[in-house]
Amino acid sequence: MSAVAKAAGRSTPRPRRSRGPTAATVIEGFLAAHPAAVTVFMAHHMQCPGCVMAQFDTIAEAALVYGIPVPLLLAELDAALAAERLAAERRAAAHPPTDPTPEPQP
Predict the structure, then answer these.
(1) CA distances from 26 to 17, 22, 59, 76 (A)
(2) Residue 7 included in any domain
(3) Which range among 3-7, 53-57, 58-62 shows the weakest confidence by mean pLDDT?
(4) Which residue has the higher pLDDT, 75 or 88?
(5) Which candidate, 48, 43, 45, places its Cα nearest to that of 59?
(6) How many structural domains are present in the chain?
(7) Which member of 6, 48, 67, 82 has the lowest number of beta carbons within 10 Å of its beta carbon?
């Protein structure tokens, strides 16, 4: 158990929450996991989606090539992920899962 968890009085640590992309995040894997982020790259006229180098390049490297400040690009990608999560939550709320167990017949 971590010192933070002990100080907070928790007996078990909280599960780690994804913090979004970092400057060291490889573009291809990130876009595969978060297709909505393609719009951020396209808004900056970045050709990363579909580029053969996306499997090697990090977000920081691409930002450098295109002359975009890394903190700005990361903030925009974080916003795209937040919008993606919100859309998924709204879809889930609009279409709650149904119970697949059939009701007994009389």
Answers:
(1) 19, 9, 6, 16
(2) no
(3) 3-7
(4) 75
(5) 48
(6) 1
(7) 67
